Amino acid sequence: MTDTSTEHPFLTACRRGKTPYTPVWLMRQAGRYMQHYRDVRAKVSFLDLCKTPDLVAEVTVTPVERLNVDAAILFADILLLLEPMGVGLEYATGGPVIQRPVRTGGDIDALRDPVPEESLSYVYAAVRSTRAALNGRVPLIGFCGAPFTLASYLIEGGASRNYIHTKRLYHTDPGAWNALMERLVASTLSYVNAQIDAGIDALQVFDSWVGCLAPDDYREYVLPHMRRLMAGVTPGVPVIHFGTGTCGLLELMREAGSDVMGVDWRVDLDEAWSRVGHDMAIQGNLDPVALFAPPAEIRRRVGDILRRVQGRPGHIFNLGHGILPETPVDHVRAMVDAVHELSA
Questions:
Q1: Which one is catalytic: 28, 103, 299, 301?
Q2: Number of domains in the chain
Q3: 315: which of 133, 203, 263, 307 is 20 to 30 A away, CA to CA?
C-alpha cells in the first residue's frame, strides 16, 4: 500500500484530511471512450483482457497518464466473482448474462463456493502488475460488487427493469435469500482482502442496482449483510460505498460503515453530505452527460459542485456514474483540469 509518509491527496481525502486540491478520478476511467482501450479490445475479448495481467496494467495506467487523475482503478468487472460459481457467466453484446439463473433454495444450495484466492488469482496478478506500472504515481483502487447487486445478477440472469425475481425471492423465501447473501459476503470478503494483500490502496464497493429497493426492504434484506461486509474488510484501507438511484437510501447506506459515500448526480452534493454526516468523506457527483457540454460549461458545473463543498475536507471529485463510451477525451481532461485549478 502507499507509504503514508508521502500520502497522496486521494487517500488523504478518503480520511477527511486537508489536501492542496480536490482529488479526482472517474468510474470507467479505462473504457471505450479511449481509442487506446478500443485498440486493445479489438484484439482480445473482454474476459480475456480481464485475465491478462499485463494488459490490465496497460489499460489501467493509460488514462492516468492521459488525464492526470489522482487515482487509478483496476480494470476488472464486478461479476468475475460469479464465474467460478458455475452459473455460466457470459459477456454478450447486450451486457453480461448468467446462463443458469439462481431462483430457488435448491439453486442456491447447488452453487459452487468459489475459492477466490485460487480462481481469481489473475486479478491479484493484475494488481501487482498495475502497481509496478504505476510506480507510486497515484494510489490504486480495487473494487467488488456489493452482495445485493451480485445476487440480483444471479437471480435475474442479467439486467432488469423491475427486479421481479429478486424481490420475489426475498419476499417469499427470506431464508434462501439470506443464505445466498451470506455466501456472497463470505466470498466477496476473501476476494477483496486478497486484493488488499496484493497491493490495492483503497476499495470501492459497487451497489449499482440497489436503488431499486424501498428503504424498508434495504433495512431488512440488505443492510445486515452490508454491515458484515464492511466490518470484514482488512482495517486501514479506505472503503468507498457507491450506488445509483440511492437518494432514498443514503442514511441507511451510511449505517453500513464505509469511510466514503459515493453519490450519483440525482442529488445535490451538499444535501447528500449533510444527510450522511460530515464525519464521513463523500465522492461525486457530476452527471456523466455533462461531459458532452462545451468545456466552459463543464468548468462552470465543476465550480458549482466545488462551491457546494464549501472548502470542507473529505471531498473526492468523480462523476455520478461511469464515463459514457461516446464522451470526448478532451472534455474529460478539461473536467480534470478544472477540478484541480478551481480547488487549488
A1: 28
A2: 1
A3: 133
